[in-house]
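Predict the holo structure. Ligand: FE2/S2 (inorganic) cluster.
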Amino acid sequence: MSGENWVDVGASDELASKPVQELRVGTKRIALTCRDGQFGAISSVCNHVGGPLGSGTLDGDYVVCPWHYYKFHWRTGEGEPGYEADRVPSHDVKVENGRVLVSAAQKTKRGRLPHEPHPLARDPKREPGPIRVLGISTTSMTAAHPRYSTSEDLLEHALASARGHADSTCDTQLLRVRDLSFRACEGFYSKSARACTWPCSITQMDSKDQMDMVYEGVVHWADVIVVATPIRWGGASSLYYKMIERMNCIQNQETIANRHLMRNKVAAFIITGGQDNVQAVAGQLLGFFAELGCQFPQFPYVAHSRGWSAEDMENNEQYVRDSKALHDGAAALVHRSADMARVMIESTLGQGALVRGGRKGHELDTRAQLPGL
Ligand code: FES
């Protein structure tokens, strides 16, 4: 290794105080590690999606990426046992006269094991066929003791009507979110927009996580998405929020990759509550699905509540069960949505680039917002 390649990165006693830290060596970002007084240096750019290894932690012999926890050997840059070939570059490092010197030249190269892409990663492509309506019920209940749900009743009726429509039969699916076992969003986006990946990092890491069924349904299958929710303390159900937090990865593709996963999709809603706040809940639902790139039919939701003091829930249940108007309204909603989807699919409406759509309508200029950067 020639002498010109050595770069002085600082005093060894200061640098030894942190097990892992990120440094610049020329143009390279280096994760400098210190273990039992010995220094190591590997690239700070993670093999996965570029997470900052220099901001990670040291777990035994391995630097743990702070984004999704991939591990690389603190000195060789090799992946964990069995994945050694999935490696980041390593650099020579030495201490002279109390100074740490890191070689600017890579000692070993980056290597990537071939990974099969996750099935969800394929480009969304609508297969020919009838309009496909996905119902998503977000009400909560125990499987062992099921109960009548006003929102789910109306959703099931709407789907049955879509299937049975004489002139324009639709394919339908019903997902009950309570039947799916999935982890809460772990806030990868809060670390960095690029840490929130498509497919979702949890989905890629955890084959038991069942949010893949929602992703498959909304991104790859459905033309129409009908979400049904009860009103819980003035908001949508907790399962709704748990689900949509995990759907940030769909919207985030707009931000980080200018990639539109949701084209020609129509969203509509069924909202029922014993008391009040229909419009606030509808606003929340509309806002989120608008940011995913969905379109809406005219009058995009049906809703029902009996008012602030109507706490006689048994009567509320009976009211919805018996309400022809509500059932007809839910059926009409799904037909309006299917008609809207048909118009979009058969036109060129969603075919061009979606320039400055959604959040990108405002140029994200972090430097302007944070002048210190
Ligand atoms: S584990 Fe490092 S970027 Fe995902």
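The two ends are 35 Å apart (CA to CA). Residues 46, 48-51, 65, 67-70 surround FE2/S2 (inorganic) cluster (CB under 6 Å).
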